[in-house]
Amino acid sequence: MSSPLLYSQQGAVVTITLNRPEKLNALSRATVEALFDAWKRFEGDPAAQVAILTGAGNKSFCVGRDLNEPAEGPFTLESLPILDVSVTVTKPVIAAVNGLALGGGFLLAQMCDLIVAAEHAIFSIPEARLGRGAAWAAPLLKMLPPRAVTELLLTGRPMSSSRLRELGFVNAVTNGSDLMDAATSMALAIAANAPLSVRACRKMVRMAGDPDNEPQSRSAVETMFEHVYLSEDAEEGVRAFREKRAPSWNGR
């Protein structure tokens, strides 16, 4: 029996693949447990700087929870491996959406820092059609125009990757065959930068999108970056610029 999730690493870039293509990469209990472990592994590995989350095959990124499995208690966000909710990840994550992103699959893409999607990718929140709730979609109001969020939630109808690119939710749209190359190129561009700077910038963006943790003043943001300004990498960046060479980051 194949593993429900694959974890691979090349240099500083980790690729996490939901591996149930015959089930459109629906989230089984085994997949959820493996994804919790994968995020912890990624966060704990100092050599890993960026992760790409994708689905096996070219039909589906993820269609949410496997509704054919008996439910184990009520659904909560803490029951799924959601970044900054039920699992701590301080490094950038890119969603490479290779097909259907429905319900919980939409949530997995939404939680990532960046989204690269195939031209044929479809995003949908069908919860209203199933009599289910979508409290997890509240952050979309910081990511999309309210009318677009309302359309997604009330109609349950899908939106294309190209439309969501126009609305600013998707960063890039590419041919399906080029999807992983595009996501990897973006990941390598991030990994080439100073790790402390990248993490601080990511934290600032995510805090600004969270009404409960939004920085209230310029001083709060400056405090967030203080360790970056005083780091060895900050000195190395200027030194490398002056010497016209690529910087050598040490994350300190």
Structure description:
The protein is α/β, with parallel strands linked by helices and 252 residues long. It is 38% helix and 17% strand. Strand 1 (5-10) and strand 2 (13-18) form a beta hairpin. The radius of gyration is 19 Å and the shape is globular. The termini are far apart.
Summarize the structure.
With about 250 residues, the protein is α/β, with parallel strands linked by helices.
Radius of gyration: 19 Å
Tell me, what is the CATH class of the largest domain? Alpha Beta
Strand order within the widest beta sheet: 1-2-3-5-7-10
Number of structural domains: 2
Mean pLDDT: 88
According to DSSP, the number of beta strands is 10
Helix/strand structural class: alpha/beta
User: Looking at the structure, what is the overall shape?
Assistant: globular
The percentage helix is: 25-40%
CATH topology of the largest domain: 2-enoyl-CoA Hydratase, Chain A, domain 1
Strand content: 15-25%
First and last CA, distance? 43 Å
Q: Uncertain runs with pLDDT below 50, 5 residues or more?
A: none
Architecture (CATH level 2) name of the largest domain: Alpha-Beta Complex
Number of helices: 9
Sequence of secondary-structure elements: EEHEEEEHEEHHEHEHHHH
Indicate the topology.
Elements: E1 5-10, E2 13-18, H1 29-44, E3 50-55, E4 60-62, E5 93-97, E6 100-102, H2 104-111, E7 114-118, E8 122-124, H3 127-130, H4 146-155, E9 159-160, H5 161-166, E10 172-174, H6 179-191, H7 195-208, H8 218-229, H9 232-243
Parallel strand pairs: 2-3, 3-5, 4-6, 5-7, 6-8, 7-10
Antiparallel strand pairs: 1-2, 8-9
Helix pairs in contact: 7-8
